[in-house]
């Protein structure tokens, strides 16, 4: 081939194959395909047993999409890149509310009142890079690693109790939309609102994110949540649905307005990391109480929404917060890189008595999280001290990049790295408790949940805000949407109106007013001001 055929990205991507124009009879030039060239007819729903799940492993499009997504940054995390962390302990109450915890779960860390389990917690922002300011509007990650006697349990969540999407197939697209522009590398709200304008289930999360709840004052004074629905399983193998919530104890909850965040950012772009570190150094140890909501393990047709939908809150009056224990952070890391940066969490890291629900987003995260850790940190990331369980480990996994030692049991033959074996190899653990065996009888389909209810809870949240929170929400949305295409503005106003008529009206009027009296995009103005206000200097 001539050199001209390789000029530009399109030349590299298309001319090398020579088949860039080949397409099926039903395809257009802009038809979405995967990298095998397969046209994608449904990019919104993974394939599940019934429309409630569970997801099946032969979801090739999802697996190709998510594994590529997991490898898009080296070595920084694709999401949750900016973080801070601390060590501490979790102390169980031995009860769930006023009932024995054993009624619902056989997990050993919860059973005995006063029992303490070591923990490591990593707080983070989600979308922005590792050097970004901690004042940016963004969900905050809240990931807890419990070093239990039965192995590690990772409870990976955010400060907000819901999420933007309910299907994991949409996750890479969502993050792409929220990241900086792929051409200019300039961040901004246009991609985000373009995506969520076509994803009505995100309306509730957008309502929280663009209110003061989108900028927590710091990591100590924010809530945490597992976001997804999990299960607890008792000794009889009976499961219940659970949601996890971390509620700050003595330090309370505080959020910032955009104006306040802008002022803080001008003075300190690492204020939340500094706040956490210095509070622990002073002996002012932050504490959170772990609460759960419990629901029977079925689809609950009496509810307006599906309990497996992560865009929804479970009503607290119907499913009260039940106290389980408290967490105290009392020790700072000795080395940021070794402990905070290399800490690796996964939603699939559970112990006996804790289980997965059929929440599709949870099942997609469970594959993605551990997959990205093997890529980002390395094949043997679980041998690093911050990630290794504080108990014995004996596996037949061998080799791989940066293998530090062999996970061999005492007396195990070094020649036997397989199971089963008649000689000195590892043996399976005995099953003492009854397994949890949910039953499925449904077709494999690509469908969304039946009860989407995309707008009602967003309206409930809007009406529950205080006046100043609603004012801040409207101002923030108007400022961001003013930068967007009018088609995006109209669709978002439509979504807000479905949620609450006053909500939509105020955003619409704000956009109309901004259009009449606008002096231009403030971000664009900042670019011009920097050039205009800069002081000339002679070369040296």
Automatic annotation (TrEMBL):
Its cofactor is heme. Coiled coil: none annotated. GO terms for cellular component: cytoplasm. Heme binds at residue 369. Keywords: Heme, Hydrogen peroxide, Iron, Metal-binding, Oxidoreductase, Peroxidase. Its EC number is 1.11.1.6. PROSITE patterns: CATALASE_1, CATALASE_2, CATALASE_3. This is Catalase. It comes from Paenibacillus glucanolyticus.
């Amino acid at each position: 081939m001539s050199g001209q055929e390789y000029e530009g990205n399109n030349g590299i991507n298309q001319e090398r194959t020579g088949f860039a124009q080949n397409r099926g009879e039903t395809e257009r030039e802009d038809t979405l395909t995967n990298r095998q060239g397969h046209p994608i007819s449904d990019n919104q729903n993974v394939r599940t047993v019934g429309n409630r799940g569970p997801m099946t492993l032969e979801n090739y499009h999802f697996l190709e999409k998510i594994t590529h997504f997991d490898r898009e940054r080296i070595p920084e995390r694709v999401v949750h890149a900016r973080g801070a962390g601390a060590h501490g302990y979790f102390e169980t109450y031995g009860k769930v509310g006023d009932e024995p915890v054993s009624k619902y779960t056989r997990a050993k860390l919860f059973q005995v009142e006063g029992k303490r389990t070591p923990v490591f917690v990593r707080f983070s922002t989600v979308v922005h890079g590792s050097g970004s300011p901690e004042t940016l509007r963004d969900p905050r990650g809240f990931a807890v690693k419990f070093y239990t006697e039965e192995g590690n349990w990772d409870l990976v969540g955010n400060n907000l109790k819901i999420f933007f999407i309910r299907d994991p197939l949409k996750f890479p697209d969502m993050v792409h939309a929220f990241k900086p522009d792929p051409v200019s590398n300039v961040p901004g709200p246009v991609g985000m609102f373009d995506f969520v304008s076509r994803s009505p289930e995100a309306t509730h999360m957008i309502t929280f994110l663009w209110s003061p709840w989108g900028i927590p004052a710091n990591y100590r004074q924010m809530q945490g949540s597992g976001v997804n629905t999990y299960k607890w399983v008792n000794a009889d193998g009976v499961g219940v649905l659970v949601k996890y919530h971390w509620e700050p104890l003595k330090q309370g909850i505080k959020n910032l307005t955009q104006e306040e965040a802008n002022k803080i950012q001008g003075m300190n772009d690492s204020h939340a990391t500094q706040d956490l570190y210095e509070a622990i150094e002073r002996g002012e140890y932050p504490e959170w109480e772990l609460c759960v909501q419990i629901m029977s393990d079925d689809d609950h047709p009496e509810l307006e929404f599906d309990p497996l939908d992560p865009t929804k809150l479970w009503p607290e009056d119907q499913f009260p917060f039940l106290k389980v224990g408290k967490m105290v952070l009392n020790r700072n890391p000795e080395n940021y890189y070794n402990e905070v940066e290399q800490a690796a969490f996964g939603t699939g890291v559970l112990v006996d008595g804790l289980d997965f629900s059929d929440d599709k987003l949870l099942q997609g995260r469970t594959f993605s999280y551990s997959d990205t850790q093997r890529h980002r940190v390395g094949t043997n990331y679980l041998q690093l001290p911050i990630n290794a369980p504080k108990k014995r480990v004996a596996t037949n996994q061998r080799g791989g990049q940066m293998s530090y030692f062999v996970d061999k049991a005492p007396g195990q033959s070094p020649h036997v790295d397989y199971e089963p074996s008649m000689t000195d190899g590892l043996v399976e653990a005995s099953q003492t408790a009854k397994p949890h065996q949910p039953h499925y009888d449904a077709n494999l389909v690509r469908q969304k949940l039946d009860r989407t209810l995309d707008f009602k809870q967003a309206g409930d949240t809007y009406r529950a805000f205080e006046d100043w929170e609603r004012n801040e929400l409207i101002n923030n949305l108007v400022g961001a949407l003013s930068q967007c295409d009018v088609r995006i503005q109209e669709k978002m106003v439509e979504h807000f109106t479905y949620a609450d008529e006053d909500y939509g009206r105020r955003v619409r009027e704000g956009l109309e007013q901004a259009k009449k009296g606008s002096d231009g995009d403030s971000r664009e103005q900042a670019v011009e001001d920097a050039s205009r206000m800069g002081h000339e200097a002679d070369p040296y």
